[in-house]
Amino acid sequence: MRNLQIDLSPEEYHSNDRLRQAVARQLGVRTDDIAHCTVTRRSIDCRRRNVMYHTTLQVSFVGEPMDESVPETAHYRDCRTSKPVVIVGAGPAGLFAALRALESGLRPIIVERGKPVDERRRDIAAMARNHSVNPESNWCFGEGGAGTFSDGKLYTRSTKRGDVNSVLRQFVAHGADPDIMLDAHAHIGTDRLGGIIARMRETIETYGGEYHFNTRVADLIVDNGQVHGVVCTDGSRYEGIAVVLATGHSARDIYQLFYRHGWLLEAKPFALGVRVEHPQELINQIQYHGAGYSRLLPPATYSLVTQVGKHGVFSFCMCPGGVIVPAATADGQQVVNGMSNSKRNSPYANSGIAVTVGLDDVKDSDVFALLRFQQQVEQRAFEAGQNAINAPSQRLTDFLARRTSTRLNESNYLGTCVSAPLHEVLPKFVVDSLIQGFKDFDRKMHGFVTDQASLLAVESRTSSPVRIPRDKDSLQHPQLQGLYPCGEGAGYAGGIVSSALDGIRCIDAISLQM
Q1: pTM here?
Q2: Measured by CB atoms within 10 angstroms of the end CB, which terminus of the chain is less buried, N or C?
Q3: Residue 192: how many CB atoms within 10 A of its CB?
Q4: Which residues contact 73 (CB under 8 A, 6 or more apart)?
């Protein structure tokens, strides 16, 4: 087998005969000499006028032996009588920590404040219908964490965290489309991810793991600086050889718990901004240069970044063919996020556009300074939405002109949009950075700035504004042996894959201590 990198037109990529002809030309051989061509990696290159699939293929010739090796899969052990490890949170970090525990001969005990994924769906539907938030079961809290109802994007900018393919193989083993192993920017889709998460739970329980839903941690069990388990609000206690704290970026009560005990916390820079929504066809036309063969291409995506003074401005969690959802975790907040189903067939594209925020922006050095800033902006957005989880909205061209929109565009927000002057609702430095950022983005993607585009506020849960520190080698909290801060909530990940890899790392670190 030979690995070959080759750029293919959409017509070549989607036709087996034309693909083989392109490969034969590249290798200087006859088409009949090629026995097999298998795509192992693919991405779409829109930088040139003619859009191409950038692919990696495995090619074999007639008469050569085939490589029939099978990728290694997870080997779980029955852990019913094994040493327990307590995992707080059933998001990606917690789930993959639990799966890794089964491989390592540890018994995972998962404590989750929210509900199983099927019950959680009903609370989310009621949130849009009744404009009320269940603080324990919403877009962020519950089985699968925030990622379950946020498109299921499976890529990370970091290649140093671990074996990304091992995470993707776990998803495939539990029902994801095997094509996620090929795509440089893979996703599963909100409509399919819930079932995959439920099957992961079945695996964990089959091999001896435990789940405790509707169970919120109130305190840690600590003896002479050693963590032995957790105490929950209902009085239940769960003990183990270690505790993996994988609570997600919105579990603010955990930060308050640490503060009350005097355990170390750190303020962490984060990012805040808006969701921008365009007609998907417009994004297709821009990215694919009006290509006549767009039917052979998936809904177009984009990734944009610029620097405005000391602030980075960047696109975040871009959802082609997606919808915008209300993502508040308590009453009195207005937060938005984006998601797509597996087919990405909505007529709208949306993306977070966020501005970096640091302590010097809030003129405070308190550990909760950035958290308070985040809360204050969410409260202002709530008030701008008429004291409900309506999305305060503005046309992009009106935002740039700093005028209130007299008419709003159609939107795929799962709720109600109300016109609001976002240039007054958001902090001035965020507004100034966004305005310049959008102008720069329009130079990179001509047509991005249009009166067809809408802004919805506020995109504020890009990451946690607080970090729970840990030793870089042992991954344990400096004051609390046996406590492993993990994932987005601890400030060490950003997205499904990086969170999953961090959960795996924490279990590996625990195994080394045994």
Answers
A1: 0.93
A2: C
A3: 17
A4: 169, 173
For the stretch 179-193, pLDDT in tens is: 999 998 888 988 999
Query: Rounded CA gap, 440 and 54, in Å?
Result: 27
Predicted confidence band at 152 (pLDDT cuts at 50, 70, 90)?
low
Q: Hunting for tokens 């984009």 — which residue is that?
A: 302
| Contact (CB, 8 A) for 454 and 415 | no
Q: Quick one: which H or E segment has residue 256?
A: helix 252-261
Helix (H) or strand (E) holding 455: strand 454-459
Spatial strand order in the sheet of 305-308: 305-308, 311-319, 348-357, 270-279, 454-459, 391-395, 417-419
Strands of the sheet containing 84-88, edge to edge, are 210-212, 107-111, 84-88, 243-245, 483-485
Q: Where are the beta strands (DSSP E) in 9-96?
A: 34-45, 52-61, 84-88
Report the first-to-last Cα separation within the chain, whole angstroms: 42
- Cα–Cα distance between 117 and 13 in angstroms, integer? 37
Q: Examine the pLDDT at 309 and tell me if it is beyond 90.
A: yes
Dihedral sign, CA of 317, 323, 329, 331?
positive
Q: What is the pLDDT of residue 481?
A: 97
Alpha-carbon span 25 to 99, nearest angstrom = 45
Q: Is 482 in a helix, a strand, or coil?
A: coil
Count of Cβ atoms closer than 10 Å to residue 215 Cβ: 20
Tokens representing residue 452 in the block: 């067809």
Q: How far is Cα 375 from Cα 369, in angstroms, rounded to an integer? A: 10
CA distance 124 to 103: 33
Calpha distance 316→294 (Å, rounded)? 24
The pair of three-digit structure tokens given for residue 56, joined into one six-digit string: 């990696």
Residue 180 region by backbone torsions, left for phi larger than 0, else alpha for psi between -120 and 50, else beta: alpha
Question: Do the beta carbons of residue 359 and residue 188 sit within 8 Å?
Answer: no
Q: Environment class of residue 49 by beta-carbon count within 10 Å: exposed (0-12), middle (13-18) or buried (19+)?
A: exposed
Burial class for 205, CB neighbours closer than 10 Å (0-12, 13-18, 19+) = middle
Average pLDDT over residues 25-54: 92
Q: What six digits make up the tokens of 209?
A: 């793991």
43 with 183: CB under 8 angstroms? yes
Cα angle 254-258-259, degrees, rounded to a multiple of 5: 115
Distances (CA, A) of 159 to 55, 240, 501: 19, 31, 10
State mean pLDDT over 163-173: 92
Q: Extract the tokens encoding 117.
A: 């994924």
- In DSSP terms, 245 is beta-bridged to 88, 485
